[in-house]
Amino acid sequence: MASLRTASPTVRNYFKENYIPQVCEALLCGLLVMCPEDPLQYLEEMIIAIMENGLENLLWDMCIDLSMRPKLQRLSKTYLEQLFGLDDQLVTPELMIKACTFHTKNLVKTHFCTWRDIAIPHVNEDEILAEKMEKAITHYNYKLQKSSFHYWHSLAENQRRKLKEVLWRIQQMLYCHKLKVVLTNWRDKARSKTKMREDELILKHERQLKRWKSKLKFRVTTEETSSPELSSSEISFVGDLPECDISLLPEKAISQIFLYLSLRDIVICGQVCHAWMLMIQTRSLWNTIDFSMVKNIIADKDIVTTLHRWRLNVLRLNFRGCILRPRTLRSIGHCRNLQELNVSDCSTLTDELMRYISEGCPGVLYLNLSNTTITNRTMRLLPRHFYNLQNLSLAYCRKFTDKGLQYLSLGNGCHKLICLDLSGCTQISVQGFKNIANSCSGIMHLTINDMPTLTDNCVKALVEKCPSITSVTFIGSPHISDCAFKALTACNLRKIRFEGNKRITDACFKFIDKNYPNINHIYMSDCKGITDSSLKSLATLKQLTVLNLANCGRIGDMGIKHFLDGPVSQRLRELNLSNCVHLGDDSVLRLSERCPNLNYLSLRNCEHLTDQGIENIVNILSLVSVDLSGTIISNEGLMVLSRHKKLKELSLSDCGKITDVGIQAFCKSSRTLEHLDVSYCPQLSDDTIRALAIYCVNLTSLSVAGCPKITDAAMEMLSAKCHYLHILDVSGCVLLTDQILADLRMGCRQLRSLKMLYCRLISREAAKKMAAAVQRQEHSCNDPPRWFGYDYEGKPLAKHHGATPHKEDLEPIVRDLTYGSEEEAV
Q1: Is residue 589 part of a domain?
Q2: pLDDT category, 423, cuts 50, 70, 90?
Q3: Cα(544)–Cα(156) distance, rounded to whole angstroms?
Q4: pLDDT classification of 727: cutoffs 50, 70, 90
Q5: Are residues 337 and 314 in contact, defined by beta-carbon separation less than 8 angstroms?
Q6: Quick one: which of 17, 251, 590, 810 has the most CB atoms within 10 Å?
Q7: Can you give the residue range of the structural domain that contains 288?
């Protein structure tokens, strides 16, 4: 049956009510798209699915998989309605009539317009031409007017611009004239105020100096009239009225104040009154006791009494250089909570005494046994009793052997040891270093100075089992070479310090560049094999902050340029280029351009540095310390340097071109100056000291050694104003007398180090009396050596006398109450 158009209405209704065309359409579409292998099975499954979903939800693409369904739009509900003859007549007579009518109208409109264009005659061409000519003339006149207007407008704009420029110039001239007048008035007022301020400062200085002299005169009178039994501490308070009662302060504030005092000062404070005696009984004040400061005046019984009284509070003890009885040293064992112990240079310390100390103080973390007579017996005690030992110094202890180092692995061992100092222990062999590596594999900081027997094999033996080493110090080890650096590549080094080694070459710096990216401190002083190539290798170290290449004479401007062109220049804080004689102004220029964070700079004995280079130093705004000793800097350069205004430390030793004028100009602008070294500048006089006393009252360190024109009057001004002075060197100041010692004792009570070599007018008695007030003192009454350039009266010597110093000239009588800072580091 091709069609149901002629079928009975019942059959047609049956097909429509039961959705026969839709079912057939869905099945046929599924077969056409899916093309199943088994059509009958597919039809069966689809019919079951249609029955489950219902005929009302039937869609033509229901039998097609979702991924294969075509995106089509249907014009009618189903295409099979026409196939079965169930659709209504789409083209009706009414639609045909409308279509014919529309087509006829379209044809009429098209042909009518064409006929109209042909039939209607054209307008006269002359009129059109005349109209076009009129429009052309109008357009030409408009263009002509526009061109003329533009020309006039450009001329007017030029005239206006010129008039504006002339007016602007007049205004600028007027403004410059006003500004010049204002600046001139401001300059005059500023100079007037500066001069007034300087006059007031000088007047204040004179008043203070006058008050100082009257006070000194009163003090001398009081000392002469006081009874012999009056102690020096009581005399110091005569004529001084207390400004406040310190006992009224909070307990924490009182403790903090007394923490700044030495043991001797604390004892003296306890003798003032009963209230002060109670104040020094604070327990926290006795956590740290330094007997080395009073080793020459304190008795053994006082040490024993003090340790017994504060045995539970003592955490840190320092007996450096003390010659004590065995009973006194055994009393250290009563300090059960002791954490730090320094018995270096104690000649009476024995293995038996160390046994008492180790049994009584198991919690020691820091132990300094340097320069003592301990043997392998003490080395056996260390791992048994000091379980938590972290810092050990055996420097210059030459009586223990490699076997003693093997004992460090006994018991719990010294596995927590972090810092080890073996300086001067020349008896240690390669096997000894192997024993250290087996016992103390966690060492991080290693110091081996003054050890000529140290070789590359010793370093290799130590590094094999100590990969945690971060800093090494090998000063005075001439047999160390580049091979040691190659062995140290197994460690993550942060700090390297070598000095006086001729076997180290540029090759070691290649190891540093490739294997130590986190290194931040490099000390390679007096290493003659280092050249500009070494600096080029260091340019990529981003973490480097300290570089010391002093006495490396083969370094020049080109090496500094390559070094500063890298990223290392941004973090560099300290740079020491002393005695690098090939450096000049170009290097300083690069420093000012590439080092924004540089704090410390040493250019000592850089002979090619001129005043032009000093101008570049001023541009390093972060600089606080600079060493220009031995350079050709003049007063002009010093005046330029005064513009920096932030310098705290300045060294100008052996600068023959500077005079009092340059120092005065510098001091006026450097009120924050704390350290000044103008030694061996014989042209300086009292005016220099006067400028320091007026403008630099915060001075803590001063060296005027080799300045023969300095007199007692200058030192009197210094004592009256610079009360914070800690270090003073007046060696070779041949005009000074005993009077300066009385001034210093009264004015500079914080003085700790005093050097008075070749001062023949200062008596031994006065120097001995002064020695009780300072920690370190050197004095001699010998004549100045010939290389000072003048005689005992300060008169210049003939040129043939300025020769190399003789040995007898370098043997002054030295009075030391403590060791120097470098020795303390050991």
Answers
A1: no
A2: very high
A3: 66
A4: very high
A5: yes
A6: 590
A7: 261-351
**φ/ψ bin of 308: left (φ > 0), alpha (ψ from -120 to 50), beta (otherwise):** alpha
Cβ neighbours of residue 329 closer than 8 Å, sequence gap 6 or more:
319, 343, 346, 348, 349, 353, 356, 357
CA triple 528-533-534, angle to 5 deg = 60
Dihedral of alpha carbons 106, 110, 113, 118, sign: negative
In a domain? residue 674: yes
Virtual torsion, Cα 14, 20, 21, 24, nearest 10 deg: -160
In a domain, 657, yes or no: yes
Is residue 753 within 8 A of residue 776, CB to CB? The reply is yes
Beta strand segments in 619-691, E? 625-627, 649-651, 675-677
Query: Please, what's the b/e burial string for 142-163 (b: 16 or more CB within 10 A of its CB; e: otherwise)?
Result: eeeeeeeeeeeeeeeeeeeeee
Res. 121 pLDDT band, cuts 50 70 90: low
Residue 562 to residue 579: CA distance in whole angstroms: 20
pTM, entire model: 0.69
Provide the 3-class DSSP secondary structure of residue 467.
Answer: coil
* More confident: 354 or 263: 354
Q: Which of 57, 82, 113 is the last residue of a domain?
A: 113
Q: What is the pLDDT of residue 820?
A: 34
- Say if residues 18 and 84 touch (Cβ distance below 8 Å): no
The predicted pLDDT at position 413 comes to 65
Max mean pLDDT range (81-90, 117-126, 178-187): 178-187
Q: What is the pLDDT of residues 636-665, one digit of tens each?
A: 999 999 998 889 999 999 998 999 999 999
- In sequence order, what are the beta bridge partners of 701? 675, 727
Q: Where are the alpha helices (DSSP H) in 525-659?
A: 532-538, 557-564, 585-594, 611-618, 635-641
**Cα dihedral value 481, 487, 491, 492, nearest 10:** 50
State how many domains the chain has. Answer: 3
Task: Give every CB contact of residue 361 below 8 A, 6+ residues apart in sequence.
Answer: 332, 333, 335, 336, 338, 341
Q: How remote is the C-alpha of 110 from its chain's centroid?
A: 93
Residue 25 lies in a domain: yes
pLDDT score of 80 more than 70: no
The CATH number linked to 758 is 3.80.10.10
Among all chains, which residue has been given the structure tokens 């020459």? 296
Q: How many residues does the chain have?
A: 826
**pLDDT score recorded for residue 238:** 38
Residue that is last in its domain, among 306, 327, 351: 351
Given a cut of 70, whether residue 183 has pLDDT beyond it is: yes
